[in-house]
Amino acid sequence: MRKNVKKFLPWLILLTILVGAVIWYILDRRVSDTQQQAYGEKIKEAELNLNGKNYSTALNKYYDATEIIPHELKAYSGIVNALLLKNRKEDALAITREATRALSSNQRSNLYLSIGDVYFEEGNYEKAKEVYQEGLSLGVTNPALELALGKSLLNVGMFKEGRRLIEENQYTGEEEIEANLILSYIYAIEGIDKAKKQISAVTPSERWNHFYDEFDTTLKSLDQDLKFNVVKLARVYINSGYPYLAIQVLQKDGVDISQYLEGKYFLGRAYLDAGQYDKAITELDAALSLGGMESEIFWTKARASYAKNDLEASITNYSRAIDSAGKQIPEDLLKEYVHMLLDNKQNLKASEVIKLSLISSEEAYIYLLGLEVSSTLSEAAKIEYYMNQLTKFELTEDQEKEYLYWQAKLFIEKGEVENAKVTLEKLLSLDKFNPKYHFLLSKVKIKETDVEGAKMSLEKCIECDLDNVVTEEALQLLSNLK
Known about the structure:
This protein is mainly alpha-helical. The chain has 27 helices and no strands.
């Protein structure tokens, strides 16, 4: 009997420890009604501040919530979301790695998914892939995360691996619809009939209906002209964010696009989006030799050159893109070029670009760009002229906000505080979260010797400025006041 007891004693001790651990785990995760209520209140306060673009306060409220119930996902999801909105991706990643260990592995994997998706949307496919892989390394089964990894693999040139991951998983819901669309894209490279069959295999939700209709229409438009077919497919792939699929289809065996203008152009576009800038320039130069589409080709070359940090070549190609456009300069092209010049302190060149653009086309947006340029050069007469010209246009709401910003700025510089305040009220009525409004309001407060009010306005400006339009100036002014 004593021998039997000795034999089973270690197992009894182990069982006791395991039972104790289970009981401790259950008790540790048990949440009282008081805790749940306090947690809910903190979450509600955080969400209200988040909606009001008070990101710092929202983050503090979310952090408070994690102290009350450490193993609930909602607070951590709010923290990650707020950090991503402020373009603090690395901070969001650090929080997910270090501070979310009380969550289940599956919950943590969803946070990795949110962060990876931002990198993916920005075109940083390699980083997105790393984040998705880190989430899956937690040992979870997360179809949405696996699909996201498959997409990123396609976009870093790991075509076979990405395809296999998308094909082998059994997706449901929105993931099934998206995966089916991507497989249709892939199969179209091999054969039109296979793609048609795949695209009709699933009924899309409202979210994906446009993409399905677009690709279905594209497939039905394909004929016996192989060069025409691959270019139409490549255009869809590039616009949908899959440059490597475009490269695959344009380099398909049996299709010679060497003398096909659109084929070479879209291959250059695809290489640009894939981050292969030298190859992009080579293909775009080949397209230029064929004649036609000069403005689009030079514009794409300018982007590729700038991505290579070749400022001189970029300026040359932007100039040629604008010259080739004639009197119909694309607004996005001119804005992109002028802002690139200003970012690189090429202010005189930017002024020259504005002058030449106004000769060929007098548009409100060009005068607004002119205000930005002339402000950097302290050209008071030009600024006054551009402001007068803008009164002749029926402005869009966004243009109206820009005009009011410049009008208020000029009033402040002239010391006309009351006029500035009236103008800022108009701007506020159009956009209460406009960071430029809060920045100029701080300057009004300074004129009125309200230092604390100025500090509050600057802090609000920094909170609202998700695109860092005036953050640097606001931080400098704030540091001077403290």
